[in-house]
Specification:
heterodimer, A: mainly beta, B: mainly beta, four-stranded antiparallel sheet, globular
Chain lengths: 112, 114
């Protein structure tokens, strides 16, 4: 069964203090790994898709990386507006493109 | 670009009542989805639809009914609401082909069953 575990559950950073969020996954065959950002009271907002080990994607202060067992979301010099819950999800080859298995998220708070 | 619109955004209903959550998308995406989000759980798939008149169960379909008579609409009905169906419901959609498998979400419908 596909599984996703995110750590830590919550993270508080000072503005400018870089850190990483972890997403460990178990899947029969990886079709894609997705990162979303979710603000309170809103739907998940798509950030990145990674398809194979070694792949990296960047957007502003965020950089996502992928290995065969986990993905990291690196946040460089975060700002208060980066505060949100970050969700990781996987699509497995067996379950196909019609389901994402989500982790429970990492709640990031960036303090000015 | 409206994307996905859900209604109502907030609803309180009583146990045993029928409730329908509406979802409308303006992208003409083939696939549409309903997820629920609960504390301690990741988002979980309830039902999805590959096209008009084609629907299939997801991970947690019990107690829910869906229909898709038009490509742009995908309503979710709770035929007899229970307290365990108190949750946040997200409608989503994705395109097919070379654009990839990214699923895009609406803003959510908060449902409380009392």
């Amino acid at each position: 069964e596909d599984q996703v575990t995110q750590s830590p559950e919550a993270l508080r950073l000072q503005e400018g203090e870089s850190s990483s969020l972890n997403c460990s996954y178990t899947v029969s065959g990886l079709r894609g790994l997705f990162w979303y950002r979710q603000d309170p009271g809103k739907g998940p907002e798509f950030l990145f898709t990674l398809y194979s080990a070694g792949e990296e994607k960047e957007k502003e202060r965020l950089k996502a990386t992928l290995t065969k067992k986990e993905s990291f979301l690196h946040i460089t010099a975060p700002k208060p507006e980066d505060s949100a819950t970050y969700l990781c999800a996987v699509q497995g080859i067996q379950t196909g493109a019609n389901n994402l298995f989500f982790g429970t998220g990492t709640r990031l708070t960036v303090i000015p | 670009d409206a994307g996905i619109t859900q209604s109502p955004r907030y609803k309180i209903t009583e146990t045993g009542r029928q409730v329908t959550l509406m979802c409308h998308q303006t992208w003409s995406h083939s696939y549409m989805f309903w997820y629920r989000q609960d504390l301690g759980h990741g988002l979980r798939l309830i039902y999805y639809s590959a096209a008009a008149d084609i629907t299939d169960k997801g991970e947690v379909p019990d107690g829910y009914v869906v229909s898709r008579s038009k490509t742009e609409n995908f309503p979710l009905t709770l035929e007899s609401a229970t307290r365990s169906q108190t949750s946040v419901y997200f409608c989503a959609s994705r395109t097919t082909g070379s654009s990839g498998n990214t699923i895009y979400f609406g803003e959510g419908s908060w449902l409380t069953v009392v």
